[in-house]
Write a structure and sequence with these properties.
Elements: E1 5-12, H1 16-27, E2 32-35, H2 44-47, H3 68-73, H4 83-96, E3 103-104, E4 109-115, E5 120-125, E6 130-138, E7 160-163, E8 178-182, H5 186-198, E9 201-206, E10 212-214, H6 222-230, H7 232-240, H8 262-275, H9 291-308, H10 312-318, E11 330-332, H11 335-338, E12 344-348, E13 354-357, E14 361-364, E15 367-370, E16 373-376, H12 385-388, E17 391-393, H13 400-403, E18 422-424, H14 437-458, E19 462-465, H15 467-482, H16 511-523, E20 529-532
Parallel strand pairs: 1-2, 1-6, 2-3, 4-17, 6-18, 7-16, 8-9, 8-16, 9-12, 10-11
Antiparallel strand pairs: 4-5, 5-6, 13-14, 14-15, 19-20
Bound molecules: ligand NA7.
Ligand NA7 binds next to helix 5.
Length: 536
């Protein structure tokens, strides 16, 4: 048996969250060990290498603000950065801050168990090693556990099976191939136009049509970038005050949708459609709050789909009916136009369900479709999947799976009752996926850093979210979500995309009040956490 390595903190994951956490731990004089299942840094941006993969938050905002030199020296090339560009950025960050020496790659954390007597975590990895740590920090990402539907017969399929979130490193060439894509969320909507350019035939299997607005992606003009950089501090500051932590350069809404007449609404939507991106949903104050207001935006997008897709029946099938923004709005380049191509076909699986996968393709209720390749753009077991796939055990040996059997139960999305000294970066119950992730990550990392400093100065060595605080917090998150239109559809925010997953709204809408709340908790002796010192 090898020896047990002892560190102050284990950090699981080396994406945006893990990298910054390691940087801050080192700066604070804590010893830390990072573990990363991937062969390199990047997290989401390491795995999601599918064609067309791109961030839907603008590049100059989807980047760290913690280091002025870093944000001044990095040059973003496009309005929306592609996956390779973001990965290069994170590799640069890892090099610049010399972070790789604290990360063990190609290593998956299998279990993390509390040793109550020693007040330490025992972390086991798939290389057979054991690490003992005072703190465990989960930087495991919200969208990292791939959701692959268990279609009957899938294992018989002779062609290639790919998932957008586990894309091979080698270039996949679809030239001359018949490709099936299952799923029309962001990953499907981004990859379908690119796959269609290569494939001989493309069949899209759609369960729920999605709203998408044009990205209007473009090369960034150096003068524009220089202007952003000259005012970076102000831009970052302004974004902190946005409900989503980004988008402060977009014109702000000034009135509720129904206070505008039809012409004014159309002009406003049209201007934002032309501008491209998420700013579309900021056309009016109440688009995510009021159903009638929301309908006006939804109908505008449906009209655009009807105007783009030439076959009216197909346009109808592609037109979503749920609340716009209830599932994350997609940002596309040529998505709806793709369906005008003769070699692209849509199968609405509500009309023609998939019966099974055969050796040579997919059998639907209406017949067999021959395919050489099946691409699953079916998303993730979001927010809890990566955590629950590990064997995490807290006080009394209780597995996290059991503690969260009725849904994730956290305080602030950061701490879990029964799991002392374990922190989750952008965990369920925090704004996370409803915000610019980088902004939320920096906030959490800095909050955890301050907490550890508090631990050092006070001699406290055990921090645990209280059960009451977590219960109140979960109720609060659901009450806030209930004031919006978010819970009105079957989204992954609610866990509805994974069969059997408890249905509970996981992210908290509204970044600035959350930041204030976390600051208040810290200023009040970490109210809601039990802080104890076992010695002295
Ligand atoms: P999403 O947004 O969860 O989209 C997954 C898509 O796959 C969505 O259209 C699902 O339909 C569909 N899906 C899921 N399971 C099935 C099954 N079993 N059969 C058919 N279709 C299915 O994941 P993405 O990867 O596109 O995007 C995730 C996030 O990454 C995105 O929101 C951005 O934040 C970036 P459904 O809507 O559930 O009916």
């Amino acid at each position: 048996m090898g020896g047990v390595r002892e560190v102050d903190a284990v950090v699981v994951g080396a994406g945006f969250a893990g990298l910054y956490m390691l940087h801050r731990l080192r700066a604070g004089g804590w010893s830390a060990q990072g573990f990363e299942a991937g062969g390199g840094v990047g997290g989401t941006w390491y795995w999601n290498r599918y064609p067309g993969a791109r961030c839907d938050v603008e590049s100059v905002e989807y980047s760290y603000k913690f280091d002025e030199d870093l944000q001044q020296e990095w040059e973003w090339a496009e309005r929306y950065a592609s996956q390779p560009e973001i990965l290069r950025y994170l590799e640069h960050v890892a090099d610049r801050f010399d972070l790789r020496r604290d990360i063990q790659f190609d290593t998956r954390v299998e279990s993390a168990h509390v040793d109550e007597r020693a007040n330490r975590w025992v972390v086991r990895t798939d290389d057979g090693a054991t690490t003992s740590a005072r703190f465990v920090i989960m930087a495991t990402g919200c969208l990292s556990a791939a959701n692959l539907p268990s279609l009957p017969g899938l294992d018989r399929f002779a062609g290639d099976v790919l998932h957008t979130g586990q894309w091979p490193h080698e270039q996949v060439d679809f030239t001359g191939r018949r490709v099936g894509v299952v799923g029309t969320g962001s990953s499907g909507i981004q990859s379908i136009p690119v796959i269609a350019e290569q494939a001989e035939a493309l069949v899209v299997f759609q369960r729920t049509p999605n709203y998408s607005v044009p990205a209007r992606n473009r090369r960034l003009d150096p003068d524009e970038v220089a202007a952003v950089k000259a005012g970076y501090a102000e831009l970052r500051e302004a974004n902190q005050l946005m409900p989503t932590g980004f988008g402060s350069r977009t014109p702000m809404p000034v009135k509720p949708a129904l206070e505008a007449d039809e012409d004014e609404r159309r002009r406003e939507f049209e201007a934002r459609w032309e501008r491209g991106g998420f700013g579309f949903l900021a056309a009016f104050l109440d688009l995510t709050l009021d159903r009638a207001a929301n309908d006006t935006a939804a109908e505008f997008v449906r009209d655009k789909i009807r105007a783009t897709v030439k076959d009216p029946l197909l346009a109808d099938r592609l037109a979503p009916t749920q609340v716009i923004g209830c599932k994350r709005l997609c940002i596309d380049t040529g998505y709806f136009e793709t369906y005008n191509q003769a070699h692209v076909r849509l199968v609405d699986i509500n009309v023609s369900p998939i019966v099974e996968v055969t050796g040579t393709g997919v059998r639907t209720s209406e017949g067999d479709i021959s395919l050489d390749c099946l691409v699953f753009a079916t998303g993730f077991d979001a927010m809890t999947g990566a955590l629950l796939r590990m064997d995490i055990r807290g006080v009394g040996g209780q597995p996290l799976q059991e503690a969260w059997a009725a849904g994730p139960r956290t305080y602030l999305g950061l701490g879990v009752p029964g799991f002392p000294n374990l922190f989750v970066i952008t965990g369920p119950g925090s704004p996370s996926v409803l915000t610019n992730m980088v902004v939320s990550i920096e906030h959490h990392v800095e909050w955890i850093t301050d907490l550890l400093e508090h631990v050092r100065t006070t001699g406290v060595d055990r921090i645990e979210a209280t059960s009451d605080a977590a219960d109140e917090w979960v109720a609060y998150v659901n009450a806030i979500a209930g004031m919006t239109l978010f819970p009105t559809c079957n989204s992954w925010y609610l866990g509805a995309n994974v069969p059997g997953k408890p249905r509970i709204f996981m992210p908290l809408p509204g970044f600035p009040p959350y930041v204030e709340h976390c600051a208040h908790v810290a200023a009040n002796g970490y109210k809601g956490f039990a802080l104890t010192a076992s010695t002295g």
